[in-house]
Design brief:
CATH class: Mainly Alpha
Structural class: alpha+beta
Largest sheet: 4 strands, antiparallel
CATH superfamily: Outer membrane efflux proteins (OEP)
Amino acid sequence: MLFTKSDFIILRALPRLDRYRQTAPISVIIAPMRPRHTVSTRAATLLTTLLLIGGCAHQSPPLVTPLPTPISTPQQWHALTTEPITASSEQGWLLPFNSPQLEALINQALQHNYSTERARLHLQSARQQSTLSRQALRPTTQGKISSGRSRTQSSGTTLHSSSHGLELSTTWEADLWQRLSDQQQATLTREEASSIDLKAARLSLTAEVTRNWFSAIESKQLMLLSEERLEQYRKAASIIKQHYSSGITDALDLHLARSEVAIAEERLASQQLEQERILRKLETLLGHYPAAELEVTNTLPLITTPIPAGLPSALLERRPDIEASHKRLQAAGLERTIAAKNRLPTLSLTAKGGTTSSELNNLLDWDYLFWNLLGNLTQPLFQQERLEAEEQLKQIAQQQAAVDYAETILQAFQEVENGLAADHYHQLRAAALERAAKESQQAATLALSRYQGGLVDILTLLDAQQRAYDRKSAHLQAIAARIDNRIQLHLALGGSY
């Protein structure tokens, strides 16, 4: 069951964050330095307590978070399927097409296509962001070596002095409210979403290459059909010309026949243009130069395996775009939590140590050692509106992620239901058009024979030939439409059955 109330656990937990809004923006710095610089601990503690108590007296109005209505989804699909469900296929949805050449082209596309390469780069960027977020939990250590010489002149006296130093400093921020941990988890979640985006890009590319491959085959078959039609019209025009020369027919029949030949030539040219366009698009997907030189086969595969009945709707849970959208919803919830915690104080510790001397050879002498330890407890002061605006921006982003998640799921159900229903009707269309094409071809053959015998006129012959061509073309397009719909269905399901 997708998109149930449990999916919004992050959203429903948001009112618990109100306690973070009860702290007013203040700023307190406790800075122990070298032993000779003393600070009254009692005074600092008293100041901190007073400011915190004063801040708690101010409370910003709670933010209203309308929750999206959960989608009630069925366990199975409503669209008609005819066969009982069997064991799920583990061999991939490309196997029924039985095209080794197609599989080789897909492998080329996965290696050279720029869209998948862009998704790979996004994943690498997300991984680096995760690395940066992990570093925030660790101490930061820096080393420093300094050396300088100065000259001063006073009352006619020139003084030269040298200063050399060796210093090592470490800074660490305590994760008091798990804010840094939440940041790390948010970036990790977005990294997971980017990884799923790469999977989605590969699946989408596979489907796009497959669709264009079969579109190229369909276009080639239509082009061959146009050549066959042109040849038939030329033969008919030749017969009519002989009859015209013999005085059997008049000039009208000859002009009509020549007109149909010209139309057939125009349609063949249009089909050749379409063929080259599809080939160039396919070659671009493969990362090749679009030269329209790719060789395709002459026949479309016949779909003989029906869609199993009883497919569970839970198959959509593996769909990459849904999974990635859910990850982004989780990340948005974490980022909204982080925005609320930004109102709380932060505690950081800085330790420094090293040596300093006017002589370079004394840098490693422990007698010149110095050190200090600095602790900072910091709270934003007079920034209530800015912090509240930042939190509301994150709240809006979280709501947008929830809406995107719901829309993605609903769109996925629509695509699958349409695909299931369309497969059944495409099958009926293809069967009916196959019968129509056979009958029309027989009618065209009979019309030509009768025209030669003077039993029918030229219009009857041309109409019969046109019908035969249209039915063959429609039957071919119905077969291709069913193949394309099956590809779209696998893409909608996120893979095989």
